[in-house]
Amino acid sequence: MAEFSLIDRIRQRAGSRPDVALGIGDDAALIDPPKGQQLVLAVDTLVEGVHFARGVPPSAIGWKALAVNLSDLAAMGAEPAVALLALTLPDDDSAFVDEFAAGFAALADTHRVALVGGDTTRGPLAASVTVMGYVPKGSALTRAGASAGDDLWITGTLGDAAGALALWTSGLPMLRTGRLRDRLDRPTPRLGAGIALRGLATACIDISDGFLADLGHLLAMSGLGADVEADALPASPALLEAFPDPLLRRELQLTGGDDYELCFSAPVARREAVRKALDAVATPASRVGSLVAGARLRLFDADRLPLPLPARRGYVHFAGSDA
Ligand code: ADP
Ligand code: MG
Q1: What topology does CATH give the domain 151-314?
Q2: Average pLDDT over the chain, rounded to an integer
Q3: Which end of the chain is more exposed for a tag (fewer CB within 10 A), N or C?
Q4: What is the pLDDT of residues 132-155, one digit of tens each?
Q5: Are 259 and 161 in contact (CB under 8 A)?
Q6: What is the pTM of this model?
Q7: Phi, psi of 298 (to 5 degrees)
């Protein structure tokens, strides 16, 4: 494969930052981290046929490969800085690489993320992205740290991406799935919200595998349970229109996945502060329940009647090994 010409195509869109002393082109990159900051690192891989279907536009794959990683940094309250890209391609397809790099760069430029290196190999289509960001020492948001009585919050809306996938796999034309499909292909990482929540949220996680599954991780790490009002889960106008059946819609919101919203806890006394902080970064948020002592997750409807938990809580890569 013309590996070097492919790398050159990517390098043209790599971007730069003052803290990058040496980017693409040497054996490794050199970064000058700002004083007093902790490095925050995450990696996520998208594999064709597992995380995206054949036929998804290359620019959307490039965008999403970075977006899912930036979402992890957002959930830590980190500010992103640089990324590494390991790209596995079935063949020497420069048009694919150009479009992929354009999608990747569109999101990277928005958040001043520089691409500082990577690897290019031949094999089944997959993109693995590593991101590094910064957070002032001691101020990262983690999954642990919530207290009983804290409010449970969600940014944005849930279920759009899962709705798009459901419509798409049931054979509906792309047009009908428009707004929802955009949430599936080009998720928006909640970076501004994550930073705004430093010092306010007591625990935080991004929702990638489904609300119930990821909330379960936050609860396990915080050693708590939760009471969740299912009818308070935020739904977009597009989801309401495409899925008028409340039961089906609720299922998508609870277990769908690929939302890349933040789920976080904060003390009741900070309700107004949370609102103001998120308003300042134009991020909508909803209170959907509260954390309770014990390990139980309970769902209620708007009349406080208990609802059964869905048997399947979210996406499971290795069935049998997770909730
Ligand atoms: P090495 O053999 O030292 O791993 P490579 O030939 O794999 O070097 O890469 C050459 C340079 O190009 C390195 O700086 C590497 O980080 C960068 N690079 C390779 N592939 C990519 C990619 N897909 N995206 C960004 N940078 C890449
Ligand atoms: Mg290499």
Answers
A1: Phosphoribosyl-aminoimidazole Synthetase; Chain A, domain 2 (3.90.650)
A2: 94
A3: N
A4: 999 999 999 999 999 999 999 999
A5: yes
A6: 0.94
A7: -120, 140
